[in-house]
Automatic annotation (TrEMBL):
It comes from the Eukaryota. Its EC number is 2.3.2.27. GO terms for biological process: ERAD pathway; protein polyubiquitination; ubiquitin-dependent protein catabolic process. It comes from Cercocebus atys. Its main location: cytoplasm. This is Ubiquitin conjugation factor E4. GO terms for cellular component: cytoplasm; nucleus; ubiquitin ligase complex.
Length: 539
């Protein structure tokens, strides 16, 4: 082999990246070659082990010492080769681990000339952790002992885009590589790392699999830390980033990937509540959703993306518990306070005027006298289409909470029962005569019309003609006196004050030990429609 060919082989060897320069790599190769020549002169190779045996004395009169010395020398040489082989294996594995960490987290400690690196198996752009590289001095590679420190250092960078370096000699502009490596939002960055780690798990050889899994777990544990202590990350609104990530996933049709990541993060948060409880961590997420949803209109597509996020939360057992606690009003006796909760804000969205008689900033039928009948029909059809979709989302949310667990079922039924009781004054005569006072005390017409539509959907399964389930309705539910909270939970009774309504046939019925959901659903729905339509019919 010529010197030129030898140089080319060394420069293309991926292990050359472990040396400070190409010259150092060549020097090391020359030394190793010389040592191998010396060893092969002694007959120490795995392919010619028999050579030493041929030189052993054949005559029994030969010295036993010479035989012993030859065998000792042979054993020593084989051990040296074995150690050298193991060392090269370790170097190879370490190099692969370093490249894998770089691919997952897009970080590096090596800022050497890209032309000296082999472009095989490394990303095109990485964030260079300069301070950590200085701290570690001679070590310019990442391994499982320092990757956690490196990831934490990356998360603390305020503008990682300013620390990007080229890892390969390619001069092609790669905007996606710049975007991924320089991602400023740390929640989104950790999710992307989680996805890259998942991909590595499916591709790496078996000896690297435990390290890939460890990197995947590291993204989850760091996400947990980010949510537990968001204050240590400067200029990062973690909870808005979480909502934005879910919103992007819904719109981009990869929501299942995000929920898989969130499920693992939620599990990690539940297991460690020493710093903050799980509700304390997640309540700010619902604050973000409340702030965004309250300004949306019925016919805005964005509204339905946010409702899909809430549908996921009402299906996830831990998030659903936080949700039903979050929607509890500050003053349960004030009917209008229910409209200010997250669920109430959703129920208040409608095509109706927010304030009767005030048409400013209203997006529907602004100039009906100037619109053609066809234009009005098109707008009506558009509104009906959105309302059907809107009511379906609300129905699914209520259904999820009723079916998820006894705890969430009790909480949402209590919310509905207390809400109806607090808004019972909507049926009073003065409600239409004093609108200023009315709107300070009670929820809006839109609130009750939407709630009534969703509850009607819950009643559909047992309201079909000749439904046997309808016969399980127990009318004595309406005659029950006041119960304490524990009795309500045991008896499945969550409405209040029905016994004070006018009874056509006064009686003292025999009450059962508890009531089924059919009875509660029908009672809640009937009373909701009564409160909602009474004020409209009596105007």
């Amino acid at each position: 082999m010529t010197d030129q060919e030898n140089n080319n082989n060394i420069s293309s060897n991926p292990f050359a990246a472990l040396f400070g320069s190409l010259a150092d790599a060549k020097q090391f190769a020359a030394i190793q070659k010389e040592q191998l020549k010396q060893q092969s002169g002694k007959g120490v190779t795995f392919n010619s082990i028999h050579f030493l045996a041929d030189e052993l004395p054949a005559s029994p009169d030969d010295s036993d010492n010479s035989v012993s010395e030859s065998l000792d020398e042979f054993d020593y040489s084989v051990a040296e080769i074995s150690r050298s082989f193991r060392s090269q294996q370790e170097i190879c594995e370490q190099l692969n681990i370093n490249h894998m960490i770089q691919r997952i987290f897009l970080i590096t400690l090596d800022n050497s000339d890209p032309s000296l690196k082999s472009g095989n198996g490394i990303p095109s752009r990485c964030v260079y952790l300069e301070e950590m590289a200085v701290e570690l001095e001679d070590q310019d590679w990442l391994d499982m002992s320092n990757v956690e420190q490196a990831l934490f250092a990356r998360l603390l960078l305020q503008d990682p885009g300013n620390h990007l370096i080229n890892m390969t000699s390619s001069t092609t502009l790669n905007l996606s590589a710049d975007r991924d490596a320089g991602e400023r939002h740390i929640f989104c960055y950790l999710y992307s790392c989680f996805q890259r780690a998942k991909e590595e798990i499916t591709k790496v050889p078996e000896n690297l699999l435990p390290f890939a899994v460890q990197c995947r777990n590291l993204t989850v544990s760091n996400t947990r830390t980010v949510l537990l202590t968001p204050e240590i990350y400067v200029d990062q609104n973690i909870h808005e980033q979480l909502v934005d990530l879910m919103l992007e996933a819904i719109q981009g049709a990869h929501f299942e990937d995000v929920t898989e990541f969130l499920e693992e993060v939620i599990e990690a948060l539940i297991l460690d509540e020493e710093v903050r409880t799980f509700p304390e961590v997640m309540i700010p997420v619902f604050d973000v959703l409340l702030g965004r949803i309250k300004d949306l209109e019925l016919c805005q597509i964005l509204l339905y993306a946010y409702l899909d996020i809430l549908l996921y939360f009402t299906r996830q057992k831990d998030m659903a518990k936080v949700f039903v606690e979050y929607i509890q009003p500050k003053d349960p006796t004030n009917g209008q306070m229910y409209q200010k909760t997250l669920l109430g804000v959703i129920l208040n969205i409608s095509c109706l005027l927010k304030t009767p008689g005030v048409v400013e900033n209203h997006g529907y039928f602004l100039n009906p006298s100037r619109s053609s009948p066809q234009e009005i029909k098109v707008q009506e059809a558009n509104i009906h289409q959105f309302m059907a979709q809107f009511h379906e989302k609300i129905y699914q949310m209520l259904k999820n909470l009723l079916q998820l667990s006894p705890e969430t079922k009790h909480c949402i039924l209590s919310w509905l029962g207390n809400c109806l009781h607090a808004n019972a004054g909507r049926t009073k005569i003065w409600a239409n005569q004093m609108p200023e006072i009315f709107f300070q005390m009670y929820a809006s017409d839109a609130f009750f019309l939407n709630l009534g539509a969703a509850l009607l959907k819950l009643c559909q399964p047992f309201c079909k003609p000749r439904s046997s389930r309808l016969l399980t309705f127990n009318p004595t539910y309406c005659a029950l006196k006041e119960l304490n909270d524990e009795e309500r939970k045991i008896k499945n009774v969550h409405m209040r004050g029905l016994d004070k309504e006018t009874c056509l046939i006064p009686a003292e019925p025999k009450f059962p030990q508890n009531y089924n959901l059919v009875t509660e659903n029908l009672a809640l729905t009937e009373y909701t429609l009564y409160l909602g339509f009474h004020r409209i019919f009596c105007r």
